[in-house]
């Protein structure tokens, strides 16, 4: 039986790995379900909780395609620290990776720092690096175990190397207002919904432009006085929620 769970896979690498794992019957762990209204240790409402992934250093940001010529200017001073490793690096790339003997290379000593060519360089977002590690090692932060869990495991035998210790660092985004202020805001938003929203079981988002209660709440938080009837729909909801997280809200609540 194949256990396949790919809910909200946000990266291309993760999706491709799970598809390939599905085809070859590889079991991988569940994605952790998000806990709603989770708080930080000091009482802030968490918007997003994840982990710090890998870091990549690049000379220039962007995507370089093999079918588009690009101009490169290589600075000699920037590569002085790598000069000592150039022979070993070239030998490894030519012999080990390409499988070509060094005797067959005719321009190994040629120097040409100014180049115009179609590069084979792809600089993409590497947010999927850690999902790669997670799936290939069948690990994720919530799947980390301790000695008590291992003691009751059927596969815990002398010499077993199934547990791998990895360093994880949490990365979180949270609202600047604390829980009591957030709950007050949610209460204001619920009380400001119009009659159509409550009686017809329609959400306020669907009829936001026609809902005068939410429009008044908008202008209350935005700090504008005596808005015209036509201007009720001019304040975007994104601006409303962004201002909810700022200190200007203190004078409202």
TrEMBL record:
EC id: 2.7.7.7
Q: Which cell locations does it reside in? A: Nucleus
Q: What job does this protein perform?
A: DNA polymerase II participates in chromosomal DNA replication.
Q: Which SUPFAM superfamilies match?
A: DNA/RNA polymerases
The record's catalysed reaction(s) read: DNA(n) + a 2'-deoxyribonucleoside 5'-triphosphate = DNA(n+1) + diphosphate
Q: Which UniProt keywords apply?
A: 4Fe-4S, DNA replication, DNA-binding, DNA-directed DNA polymerase, Iron, Iron-sulfur, Metal-binding, Nucleotidyltransferase, Nucleus, Transferase, Zinc, Zinc-finger
Give the Gene Ontology MF terms in alphabetical order.
Answer: 4 iron, 4 sulfur cluster binding; DNA binding; DNA-directed DNA polymerase activity; single-stranded DNA 3'-5' DNA exonuclease activity; zinc ion binding
Q: Which GO terms describe its cellular component?
A: epsilon DNA polymerase complex
Protein name per UniProt: DNA polymerase epsilon catalytic subunit
What broad taxonomic lineage does this protein's source fall under? Eukaryota, Metazoa, Ecdysozoa, Arthropoda, Hexapoda
Q: Which domain of life is it from?
A: Eukaryota
Question: Which cofactors?
Answer: [4Fe-4S] cluster
Q: Give the family, as the similarity comment puts it.
A: Belongs to the DNA polymerase type-B family.
- What does the record list as GO biological process? base-excision repair, gap-filling; DNA replication proofreading; leading strand elongation; mitotic cell cycle; nucleotide-excision repair, DNA gap filling
Cleavable signal peptide = none
Tell me which InterPro entries the record gives.
DNA/RNA_pol_sf, POL2
